[in-house]
Write a structure and sequence with these properties.
The complex is a heterodimer. Chain A is built from eight helices and nine strands. Chain A is an alpha/beta fold. In chain A, strands 1, 2, 3, 4, 5, 6, 7, 8 and 9 form a nine-stranded mixed sheet that branches. In chain A, β1, α2 and β2 form a beta-alpha-beta unit. The chains are: A alpha/beta, B mainly alpha. At the A-B interface, α1, α3 and β6 of A face α10 and α11 of B.
Chain lengths: ~260, ~260
């Protein structure tokens, strides 16, 4: 009885832990020329700021390629994703919010081919709805009692520090709260009592926070690269996905999510 | 057969700890632990968890007494409410604390307005009470999750303590406070200690409610668990070193308690 229960538990565990990227079936190796039938599933690890556009892109990609059984999306901060991939997490495609994360993987030999930029993003100051403190420029952030930024090693945090340095603003340490990713940073302003924050322009939505636009001259441009990983179990579908993101359909989704085309 | 299963379970718990010990960078351990950010986090964690424990004991004793000895309608519901943080996911606890104590919360808004300039209590030091993003907020969050541990332990002890001793003391002329101090408290003292230690360990390890409610400000709200989480990406060696500190503390606590917290008063 106990042995039976143990076996059931073990089977459940193993079932949950099985890698999601299925091996390519016989007919999926692409031949040059006519579009081959893409089969199987892939896992795409993408920066959390890409949540909305990539969800739509994945749906569009699956609609265009009915043989693809699934496109599993894994969103988190780029630095966390790098740690996962370096730790052997199964992923086929990696889309980062900065070049540094991609370079880190490239140096470790985790990429199958050179990465390519597919989008850019501006930063923005986010404040509570109604902008009670009247923050209009980066320098005005000194007025805020608590400023929410991403962690210093997270891409949006690095960019934010660059933007502050560019404006010559030095915020006292006891006024800065560092969150683990851009969504958490936004929530610190929208749901909690942070007076202002710096997140990606594309992140600000909803009715509890509003964006204070920072002109390009004072702003920092984030570059988003994408690449297929060497450990991909379904390289053909992975490459096709990357091509789709860079192609007209993918770019349209990104633009409608307020991203900028790659420079 | 039973021993074999037990051995497997022990292995399940021992393996992650063994992995952590193996992962640690022993040569740089001291340097990692004495880095300014690490020391800040250690100091803050100690101060906040000890404060939260003190609050848990001071507030928990009367509550445990009321639940154990005073009959009143709806006691089961009140007990469930008080013990809720035991089962509530910590992040949910954090969100709930925001809903109550942030400036837009049920009580937090009023509290801030009344203590800031123009409010009835503005003569109090500081310019407005704000729990979010403050060390007081960390203590609040830690007390919220730790107090139930204390109450559970002490209430159980009070329930099983023989009340006849109190009755005898009363017939001999002892006042209620005298009776509590010298009779009841003596009986439940081991459980009070055990409850306090448990509450302290829980407060020390608190993460979800702290980061959601008090945020992550270096030197002000960045406790050990938060520091570990954020250092994991940038300085993993320091993160592991701090994890080892937490591990050592937790292990010592459990070894020191041994069977005590299961022991009746």
């Amino acid at each position: 009885m106990l042995v039976a229960a143990l076996l059931v538990g073990l089977v459940g565990l193993v079932g949950c832990a099985a890698p999601t990227s299925s091996a390519p079936t016989a007919g999926s190796a692409p031949t040059s020329g006519s579009s081959p039938e893409l089969r199987g599933s892939i896992t795409v690890s993408a920066a959390s700021s890409l949540t909305a556009p990539f969800t739509a892109i994945a749906a569009g990609f699956r609609a265009a390629n009915p043989g693809v059984t699934d496109v599993m999306l894994n969103f988190d901060s780029s630095s966390t994703l790098v740690k996962q991939i370096e730790g052997g997490a199964p992923a086929d495609v990696f889309a980062a919010a900065d070049d540094a994360s991609m370079i880190k993987l490239a140096e470790g030999g985790a990429l199958a081919a050179n990465p390519a930029p597919f989008a850019r993003n501006r930063l923005t100051i986010v404040v509570k709805k109604g902008n009670p403190l009247g923050i209009a420029t980066v320098a005005d952030l000194a007025k805020a009692k608590v400023v929410a930024l991403c962690g210093a090693e997270v891409p949006c945090g690095r960019y934010a520090d660059q933007m502050l340095a560019k404006a010559g603003v030095s915020l006292p340490v006891e006024r800065v709260t560092r969150s683990q990713n851009a969504k958490a940073t936004l929530n610190a302003v929208a749901e909690s009592d942070a007076d202002a924050g710096i997140v990606y322009f594309t992140d600000v939505s909803g009715d509890r926070a509003e964006a204070v636009v920072v002109p390009d001259a004072d702003n920092v441009m984030a570059t988003y690269p994408i690449a297929v990983l060497r450990t991909s179990g379904n390289a053909s579908v992975a490459e096709a996905f990357v091509a789709y993101v860079a192609g007209p359909a993918g770019q349209a989704e990104l633009v409608s999510a307020r991203f900028l085309p790659p420079g | 057969m039973v021993t074999a299963v037990a051995a497997l379970v022990v292995l399940f718990f021992a393996l992650p700890l063994a992995g952590l010990l193996r992962r640690a960078s022993w040569s740089t351990l001291w340097v990692d632990l004495t880095a300014p950010e690490a020391l800040q986090a250690l100091r803050l964690s100690l101060v906040c968890s000890l404060t939260a424990t003190t609050l848990s004991v001071v507030l928990g004793l009367p509550l445990a007494w009321t639940l154990a000895r005073t009959p009143f309608p709806g006691k089961a519901l009140v007990r469930a409410l008080v013990l809720l943080p035991l089962v509530l996911p910590p992040v949910v606890g954090g969100v709930a604390l925001l809903a109550a104590f942030s400036k837009r919360g049920l009580v937090g808004g009023w509290l801030f307005d009344v203590t800031t300039t123009g409010g009835a209590l503005s003569w109090l030091p500081g310019d407005g009470v704000q729990f979010t993003f403050s060390t007081a907020g960390v203590v609040l969050a830690e007390t919220f999750v730790a107090l139930p541990f204390f109450v559970v332990t002490v209430e159980a002890a009070l329930r099983s303590a023989d009340q006849r001793f109190d009755e005898v003391a009363a017939t001999l002329g002892a006042g209620r406070w005298f009776s509590f101090r010298h009779v009841t408290f003596r009986l439940i003292a081991p459980s009070v200690v055990a409850g306090a230690v448990l509450a302290w360990a829980r407060a020390l390890g608190e993460f979800g409610a702290t980061i959601t409610f008090a945020g992550n400000i270096e030197g002000r709200t960045e406790t050990l668990p938060l520091a570990v989480y954020l250092l994991l990406d940038s300085r993993p060696d320091t993160a592991v070193a701090l994890s080892l500190v937490l591990l050592a503390v937790s292990l010592s606590v459990l070894v020191a308690l041994r069977d005590r917290w299961l022991e009746r008063a």
